[in-house]
Amino acid sequence: MKAFAMLGIGNTGWIEKERPACGPMDAILRPIALAPCTSDVHTVWEGAVGDRHNLILGHEGVGEVVEVGNLVKDFKPGDKVIMPAITPDWNSLEAQAGFSMHSGGMLGGWKFSNVKDGVFGEFIHVNDADGNLALLPEGLAPETAAMLSDMVPTGLHGSELANVQYGDKVCVIGIGPVGLMGVRGAVLRGAADIYAVGSRPNCIEIAKEYGATDIINYKDGSILEQVMDKTNGKGVDRVIIAGGDCDTFDEAIKMLKPGGVIGNINYLGEGEFVKIPRAEWGVGMGHKTIAGGLMPGGRLRMEKLAAMVMAGRIDPSRLITHRFEGFDKVEEALMLMKDKPRDLIKPVVTINW
Ligand code: NDP
Ligand code: ZN
Predict the structure, then answer these.
(1) Measuring from atom 6 of ligand 1, which residue has the nearest CA?
(2) CATH class of segment(s) 154-292
(3) Cα distance between residue 135 and residue 49, in whole Å
(4) DSSP secondary structure letters along 187-238
(5) Mutate to test the pocket of ligand 1, among 39, 59, 147, 208 (most ligand atoms within 8 A of CB)
(6) pLDDT band at residue 48 using 50, 70 and 90 as cut-offs
(7) Helix (H) / strand (E) containing 154
(8) Tell me: the pLDDT tens digits for 327-346?
(9) Tens-digit pLDDT profile for residues 55-107
(10) CB 204 within 8 A of CB 211
C-alpha cells in the first residue's frame, strides 16, 4: 500500500509498505478524512521524540472499517468510524490505574505516528477496536468528525487538567486549534473571564466566537503584564498552555494566584528544562500546580465528545480553514501545517476511494 511517512528527522516522503495485518481484537480501516497535526511537525522537523525511519505519519481522521478481528464485537466492515489519536491498551495496568494514555509506559497510548504506523496510509491498523473506535454519528460530516480525533479531546483536556471551576479567570496561552478548544472547554466548565493569547486574526475571531472575553497578543509585549493589567494585578485562577515553549511556564506561574493550576497540553518539542520561577512559585510553597498531560483517548470519550458536537455545545467545523480532496493531498496539507500561513487554523483532506 501507499503511505506518507517520516523517513528520518527533517525528512518526509511517499513509501510503499505492507498492508497491516488484523489481530483478533483489531480493525483495519481505509481513511475517508485525514488531518495533519502540529505534533507531526514537532515529531518530524524537531525530532522531538527521536528518530524514526519509514514511520507512517498522522493520527487524526475518520475511516471506513474494511476488516475486523474475530473478537471484535461492536464494529463490522462498512462502518464509518472516528479514530482517536490516542489508542490505549485498555487491559493494561496503567489504564486500570486511570492513566490510559500511558498504557505500557509513559505516553504509551500514543501509538499512531509515534511507536507504530500512523493514519496517512491507504490502510490503517487500530488496536483494541472495541475500546478505541467510535461510530461516526449520522449527519456529522467526516471532516468535522476528524477534529474529534485530537483537537477537541486535547483542547478540552487542557481545561480538565487546569481543573477550571465556575467563575474562574482563565488564561489560555496559544489559540491554534488546540488552544481554541481549550477556550471552549473553559467556557463549558463555567469560566467567567477568559484571556486568550495569540496573534493570528482567524484564531482571534474564533476565540471570541467560542467565548474568550479578552484577547492578548503576545507580540505586543509581555503576556504577564497584559494579564496583570486586565486583572488589577491579581492574576488568574487557571492557565491552559497550548502554545509557546519551555519558558512559557515562567509567565504562567507568575500570573497564577496561589492555589491555581496550570493545565499544559503543549508538546514541548525543544529545550531541556522547563522554567519555574522560585519566588513566584511561593518559594516552593505557593500551592501552584503544574499538570501536563496527553489526552486520554479511547472510544467512550470520543462518543461523548461527538454527542456534544451533535448537541451543538461544540462546533469544531469552525477550526477547518483549508480543505483538500484526494489521498495524495496529505503531503500538501502537512506542509501547510509546517509552514503555518497566517490564515491557517486546520487543514483537512477528504478521500473518496
Ligand atoms: P498552533 O501552532 O496552531 O498554535 C500555537 C499557538 O501558540 C498560536 O496561537 C500561537 O500564536 C501561539 N504562540 C506561539 N508562540 C507563542 C509564544 N511565544 N507565546 C505565547 N503564544 C505563542 O498549534 P496547535 O494548536 O495545532 O497545537 C498546540 C500544541 O498542542 C502543539 O505543541 C501540539 O503539538 C500540541 N498537541 C498536544 C496534544 C496532547 O495530547 N497534549 C495533542 C495535539 C497537539 P499565533 O497566533 O501567533 O500563531
Ligand atoms: Zn494531533
Answers:
(1) 174
(2) alpha beta
(3) 31
(4) HHTT-SEEEEE---HHHHHHHHHHT-SEEE-GGGS-HHHHHHHHTTT--EEE
(5) 39
(6) confident
(7) helix 151-161
(8) 999 999 999 999 999 999 99
(9) 999 999 999 999 999 999 999 999 999 999 999 999 999 999 999 999 999 99
(10) no
Q: Are 79 and 135 in contact (CB under 8 A)?
A: yes
Percent of the chain past pLDDT 90, that is, above it, reads 98
**CA-345 nearest atom, ligand 1:** 3
Q: From the CA of 248, which ligand is nearest? A: 1
CATH of domain 2-150+295-350: 3.90.180.10
pLDDT single digits (tens) 172-190: 999 999 999 999 999 999 9
- The span from the CA of 18 to the CA of 31, in Å, is 16
Tens of pLDDT, residue by residue over 297-306, are 999 999 999 9
Query: Which residues neighbour 99 within 8 Å (Cβ) at sequence distance 6 or greater?
Result: none
CA distances from 306 to 83, 124, 311 (A): 12, 21, 9
Dig out the grid coordinates for 276 from the structure: 519555574
Pocket of ligand 1 (CB under 6 A): 37-39, 42, 150, 154, 173-179, 197-200, 203, 218, 242-244, 248, 265-267, 294-295
- Of all protein residues, the one whose alpha carbon is nearest to atom 2 of ligand 1 is 176
Q: For residues 201-224, give the mean pLDDT.
A: 97
For ligand 1, atom 1, name the residue with the nearest CA.
176
